[in-house]
Specification:
Distance between the termini: 41 Å
Number of helices: 14
Strand content: 15-25%
């Protein structure tokens, strides 16, 4: 959830997401070493290129850019060095999935893949690999930070004292929020459509097993997963990275030359091929095919759900009862249909409260015209598995915008206090790390008010 006046969004703006990418492969400036951190140099060209891009996008830079930018680069190097010592790795599949989401974001913002390539002055495959490195580093830094702050807790008394200490202009304004419940029904898929998908997968598996074609080639050509461009490769992952049905097959593979049986998950139907095993992790390729839903099937599903709505409105049973017995939304059916805010950029807290822009667009369109207690008519939306489903929603509450208070916004204030404690822990850790690390800042780069102490020795 995005709270006004709290600038904790991570990667939400196009500028902050792309300026490191534009800096790469542009070594037109004569390099000079500005900083040295451990055995790694930070060059003037990197700083100039990042600064140039930030200015072109009109981004706000706190303080002197020739102080802020190199310090941020140096801080990242310290975290990445710690990750190496702690042998911290991130699932490659998570990185690749995040990269595909980011590229889709660029395409939506700029209008087409061709415009993305023109904007970045590089092809999509090159852009994709640049993003992989950047987002892998971001994920590793985040994991180091979580490891350092995982024991942070807050008592009610601490939260109260923290809130009482906040100046009035530091108390965040909470925009209008809503709480909602949802029921979804999956459209029926004709058996023949499922059999056709399975037949295609069996054909692919037979061709690979006979040595006619590489699995990765078929994945690039036909897989409907974001990993298709990598030949279906997902990288080394533990069991927890995948849904159980997929993980069970992946970890039982033993022959890299053979293709697995067909496995069904919430995303569709897959075949897998082993690449390698390493301890309790495995790297596999896969091909995903999803049975297609016809417009008639979707219409039938909305008609069924409209009938259920009429019975709810007529008092035959409650929305909560229907959600528990009838809903096929796996994230809410055991919670009386209550929706939970899982906005990846919030970093504040997860709750049942949403700002309108945090809701899926199909749901926000319904809720915008509803009053608390209303149940919408059935509509079509994409679920978390990117499949079309029929849905109805109930608007539980609409909370007017207000200044945060302990009574209504305790979880928000608690998270603010925990974030404050985490910032202090990370600051203390970084300043200790700076003292222990060889750092050389060239004379022309030393006259700065740095965020962290100890850089200049």
């Amino acid at each position: 959830m995005k709270i006004n006046n709290i600038k904790l969004l991570v990667g939400a703006g196009l500028t902050l997401l792309i300026f490191p990418l534009l800096a790469q492969n542009q070594k037109n400036i004569v390099d000079e070493v500005a900083w040295v951190v451990g055995d790694e140099a930070i060059f003037r060209s990197d700083i100039e290129e990042q600064y140039k891009q930030l200015r072109s996008e009109g981004a706000s830079i706190p303080g002197d850019p020739y102080c802020f930018i190199p310090e941020q680069i140096a801080v990242e190097k310290l975290y990445l060095h710690q990750a190496k010592m702690d042998t911290i790795e991130v699932p490659e599949s998570n990185v690749r999935s995040a990269v595909e989401q980011r590229i889709n974001f660029f395409v939506n913002q700029l209008g087409s893949k061709e415009k993305v390539e023109e904007y970045f002055h590089k092809s999509l495959p090159v852009l994709r690999e640049n993003l992989v490195e950047m987002m892998r580093n971001n994920a590793i830094v985040g994991q180091v930070q979580r490891n350092l702050t995982e024991n942070v807790t807050a008592t009610p008394n601490e939260v109260r004292k923290f809130f009482d200490s906040l100046p009035t202009d530091s108390i965040p304004y909470v925009p209008m929020q809503v709480e909602a419940q949802i029921i979804t029904i999956n459209p029926n898929i004709p058996r023949q459509e499922i059999e056709d998908v399975k037949a295609r997968l069996r054909e692919y598996a037979d061709r690979v097993n006979r040595g006619e074609i590489d699995f990765s080639t078929l994945a690039i050509m036909y897989s409907e997963d974001g990993s298709a461009m990598q030949g279906g490769e997902l990288g080394f992952n533990g069991r927890a990275a995948w849904v159980p049905e997929f993980a069970n097959v992946a970890f039982n593979l033993s022959d890299p030359k053979k293709v697995s049986r067909i496995v069904e998950t919430e995303y569709g139907y897959h075949i897998l091929q082993l690449i390698a095993k390493r301890g309790d992790q495995v790297n596999v390729r896969h091909i995903l095919l999803t049975p297609k839903v016809s417009s008639k099937d979707l219409t039938d599903a909305t008609n069924r759900l409209d009938s259920i709505r009429k019975e709810i409105v007529g008092g035959a049973f409650t929305f909560e009862e229907a959600a528990g017995y009838l809903s096929q939304d796996k994230d809410t059916r055991n919670n009386r249909g209550v929706m939970t805010n899982n906005n990846e950029y919030s970093n504040l807290y997860r709750s049942s409260k949403f700002e309108m822009q945090d809701l899926p667009i199909e749901i926000s369109r319904q809720i915008d015209k509803m009053n608390p207690g209303d149940v919408s008519e059935a509509f079509i939306m994409k679920n978390n598995s990117h499949k079309d489903v029929a849905a109805i929603v109930k608007l539980t509450d609409r909370i007017p915008g207000h200044r945060a208070n302990l009574s209504d916004d305790y979880n928000l204030i608690k998270k603010m206090y925990e974030n404050h404690k985490k910032e202090l822990i990370l600051k203390e850790w970084l300043e200790k790390k700076i003292k222990e690390t060889y750092v050389r800042i060239e004379p022309g780069w030393q006259n700065c008010e740095f965020k962290y102490e100890g850089w200049v020795k």
